[in-house]
């Protein structure tokens, strides 16, 4: 880090999200390499265009297996493992429901209950068949679609971190729009803001201080629409086909890998605060901050981060309380 501590910020829009890279040296070629890398992964993983490796799998649903590249295969393997955990809220086969609701895209509206019921039959994670020998993926039923929207940004944030480390960068930050991965400890620690739900874009509930960690937040307030006075957000309960409805506005995970953060935000979103705190007891490597509709900020053990409350309309509570 230069002794004057100047931060150089580079931004782009990729994966429908604002991307921000912070470095401590002026290095436009490195910033462009990072943005190209993100774009390469977007091209492999997107389901928002007709063609990508994931779309090749989706187009062949009910027909035949499709061989993909090793990174795509491994990410799908991870996503399936998270999906088949008992009572998991994570489901990599959620695609048909995501496409039907269109939350965050033009034309979003509440689908008829019959449509949702029918789509639940083609959103079963166990119908995603993986073949380790051929690196192939087969969706056994016609109409099935993999959607990696809840995990891909985490994976990509980790790959950006790896490239920066390889390039000798000791201090830096990548934010993929909700997925932050940090390198180093400039001025002691990175301070990452925790957004205030349904408030102005820059309003914060608090800030996390972290070093060498990823911070991932999933919330109900970024992508949603309102119909007949009700709000519908983009994290779908795979068991009902409707947006997850519980006491939470957001879940933030602090972990070493952003991939884990991305998976756990969805798992804990589904579990809710009480079960979520239980689940974290066995995982010293995963820490969480729950923000509830009742304006509570509930923290796990704070081994890997410090939290500063910035909005005194919120009450700070410990997971163990
Ligand atoms: P998370 O909470 O981590 O994930 C929510 C997303 O995961 C949902 O949007 C849905 O896609 C999926 N999902 C919903 N319910 C579940 C569930 N129960 N289990 C598993 N997954 C679930 N956005 C655009 O507007 N335009 C684009 O062109 C575009 N392209 C993208 C390309 C890529 C490769 C990726 C990774 C994302 C892209 N996005 C795009 C954003 C995408 O549509 C999601 O909004 C985004 O990935 C959500 O990330 P998150 O961290 O906010 O939410
Ligand atoms: Mg996620």
How would you describe what is shown here?
Belongs to the ApbE family. Keywords: FAD, Flavoprotein, Magnesium, Metal-binding, Transferase. One of its GO terms (molecular function) is transferase activity. This is FAD:protein FMN transferase. Its cofactor is Mg(2+). Among the domains are: 53-139, ApbE-like superfamily (T-fold, Orthogonal Bundle), CATH 1.10.3980.10; 185-318, T-fold (Roll), CATH 3.10.520. A hairpin with a 2-residue loop joins strand 11 (224-227) and strand 12. The chain has helices at 28-45, 53-59, 70-83, 95-101, 113-120, 152-166, 258-281; strands at 8-14, 17-23, 66-67, 128-131, 136-139, 172-175, 179-183, 190-195, 204-210, 214-219, 224-227, 230-233, 248-255, 287-292, 296-299, 306-309, 315-318. The strands form 4 sheets. It has a 9-stranded mixed β-sheet, covered by helices on one side. A 3-stranded antiparallel β-sheet has the order 3-5-4, covered by helices on one side. The longest helix has 24 residues, at 258-281. By secondary structure, it is α+β, with helices and mostly antiparallel strands. Helix 1 (28-45) runs antiparallel to helix 6 and helix 6 (152-166) crosses helix 7. Residues 15-17, 42, 45-46, 48, 89-91, 94, 98, 104, 147, 149-150, 152-153, 178-179, 218, 222-223, 234-236, 238, 262, 265-266 line the site of flavin-adenine dinucleotide (FAD).
């Amino acid at each position: 880090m230069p002794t004057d501590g100047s931060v150089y910020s580079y931004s782009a829009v990729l994966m429908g999200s604002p991307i921000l890279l912070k470095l401590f040296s002026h290095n436009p070629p490195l910033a462009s390499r990072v943005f190209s890398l993100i774009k390469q992964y977007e091209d492999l993983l997107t389901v928002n265009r007709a063609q990508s490796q994931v779309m090749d799998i989706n187009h062949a649903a009910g027909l035949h297996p499709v061989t993909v590249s090793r990174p795509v295969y491994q990410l799908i393997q991870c996503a399936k493992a998270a999906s088949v955990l008992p009572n998991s809220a994570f489901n990599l086969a959620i695609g048909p429901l995501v496409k039907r609701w269109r939350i965050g895209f033009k034309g979003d509206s509440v689908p008829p209950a019959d449509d949702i019921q029918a789509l639940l039959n083609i959103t079963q994670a166990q119908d995603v068949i993986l073949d380790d020998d051929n690196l192939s993926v087969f969706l056994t039923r016609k109409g099935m679609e993999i959607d990696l929207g809840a995990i891909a940004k985490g994976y990509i944030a980790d790959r950006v971190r790896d490239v920066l480390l390889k390039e000798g960068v000791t201090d830096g930050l990548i934010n993929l729009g909700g997925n932050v991965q940090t390198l180093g400890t400039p001025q002691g620690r990175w301070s990452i803001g925790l957004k205030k739900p349904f408030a102005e874009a820059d309003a914060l509930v608090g800030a996390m201080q972290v070093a060498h960690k990823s911070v991932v937040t999933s919330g109900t307030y970024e992508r949603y629409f309102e119909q007949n006075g009700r709000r519908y957000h983009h994290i779908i309960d795979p068991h009902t086909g409707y947006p997850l409805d519980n006491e939470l506005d957001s879940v933030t995970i602090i972990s070493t890998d952003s991939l884990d953060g991305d998976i756990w935000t969805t798992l804990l979103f589904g579990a809710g605060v009480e079960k979520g705190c239980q689940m974290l007891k066995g995982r010293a490597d995963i820490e969480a901050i729950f923000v509830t509709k009742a304006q509570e900020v509930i923290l796990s053990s704070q081994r890997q981060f410090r939290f500063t409350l910035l909005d005194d309309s919120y009450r700070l509570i410990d997971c163990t309380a």
